[in-house]
Give the backbone structure.
Amino acid sequence: MRIAMIAAVAENGAIGIDNKLPWYLPGDLRYFKAVTMGKPIIMGRKTFDSLRKPLPGRTNIVITRDSNYQPEGVKVVHSLDAALSLAEEVGLINGLDEMMIIGGEQIYRLAMERADRLYLTRVYQSFEGDAWFPELDQTCWSESQREDHFSEDEPPLKYSYQVLDRVQ
Ligand SMILES: NC(=O)c1ccc[n+]([C@@H]2O[C@H](COP(=O)([O-])OP(=O)(O)OC[C@H]3O[C@@H](n4cnc5c(N)ncnc54)[C@H](OP(=O)(O)O)[C@@H]3O)[C@@H](O)[C@H]2O)c1
């Protein structure tokens, strides 16, 4: 099963601030929903806190070190390996070919070397942040798709949906 990560990343690498997204991009939220729907989604406890409730139509797998943590409607695990194994099981049962790692920074860093594909929304503006996407080793990735967009929401933003596949 392919291990994919999905993230929206500002020009300066910011992905979050105060446990929220730094921007308002409804088009990207629809894209995120379309790409992740039906698949197991793996996230860190802080990202789950920012969502407040499980995302419907997807098996929500949350990684934490807290053995007492058990919010309703999610599968709790205590390591990345346990998350990947559980997602693999769910995928096998449901005939899926891809699992999605949805953040945040700590989990992207942990999972980067295991990922086969990256779905990156490139936001062409810098934002204040306290969470960052790890720097990519350009020798490892090749762009297989790119789609440019413009949002007329406030502030207006140029962004692209980029898909990168691992080459080594
Ligand atoms: N732009 C985007 O696409 C995007 C996507 C997702 C999130 N975000 C943003 O990213 C920020 C959150 O990122 P973050 O790095 O602060 O937090 P995070 O990665 O979402 O979650 C961190 C938590 O995961 C658990 N964890 C981390 N490593 C672990 C390990 N090795 N074993 C077991 N548990 C482990 C810990 O939970 P416990 O403390 O409970 O032990 C840790 O506090 C927010 O601002 C959010 O809005 C942005």
In short: Residues 64 and 143 are 32 Å apart (CA to CA). The longest helix spans residues 80-94. Residues 7-8, 15-16, 19-21, 43-47, 50, 63-66, 78-79, 102-107, 110, 131 surround NAP (CB under 6 Å).
